[in-house]
Amino acid sequence: MSPAVEATVPRGPLQVDGEVFSIKRVADYFHLTLVADGIAERTRPGSFVALSVGGPTSGTLLRRAFSIYRVRPAGVYGGTVEIVFAAHGAGTTWMAQLQPHDPVNVVGPLGHPFALPKERVSCALVGGGYGSAPLFALAERLRERHCAVHMVLGASTESRLFGALEAKRAAQSVTVTTVDGSVGIKGLVTDPLPALMTRNHIEVVYSCGPMGMLKAVTDVATAHGAWSQTAVEEAMACGIGVCMTCVLPVVGDDNVTRMVRSCVEGPVFAGDRVRWDDVGTVPAGAYGAPRPGRHG
Question: Which domains does the chain have, with CATH numbers?
Fold first, then answer.
């Protein structure tokens, strides 16, 4: 049975002409701090921002969506929003070259954030790569509610871990895994999870990272009778529910599967409601799916 929770839905998003406060390299990732007044006060753990990338002369029209790592309310320089990203494509490569005071248009906070327990429970927070970034603000909110917080961080190798040192300050226990064994336990992030859940009587599991990892974490949580929430990493082109590029099949309370938008109805979903094996498809029987024998 899932513990009672209260939703923490932020107020409506803002579009802000922000600017770079700082950017620094952290192992294989970049840590970007933006001055974006008004967004920090509205942010809840699990929310994300959509950034305009490429500059005014770029042909890159679509925004890039990033989970919010941390926010700081208005101060001397205004409210700030922090994100962590890897430079993969044209948009993030452009972002990696930003300098302090460069302009960046920001929309946020977007999406449905994590729900927080109403009661004191023991929680596991599981992150893969820089997917662990939004879990630190969540850990802080959980500790404010006197919940026990245990973090499990995993990556392919040590340079792709994020936040291992910060986790020691954020959680009562920290477990680190790497696929190549360069640090921590050699293996997948889910390998030590069953024993940790049993040892600490985990009732709620929060996770953020690659989709395959989220499925595996959900399977472990469900097998142990825990309630799970996952922040999915689907490609989001608009961030506001218009383009429909980030849909995935989710089972509703009425047991009907619907293709829902990760950016609006998510990115946080109850893990056992996502049809993980059918992500990327419109499964037969889903609401609105084509019926066999019908064409056109």
Answer: 8-110 (2.40.30.10), 116-231 (3.40.50.80)
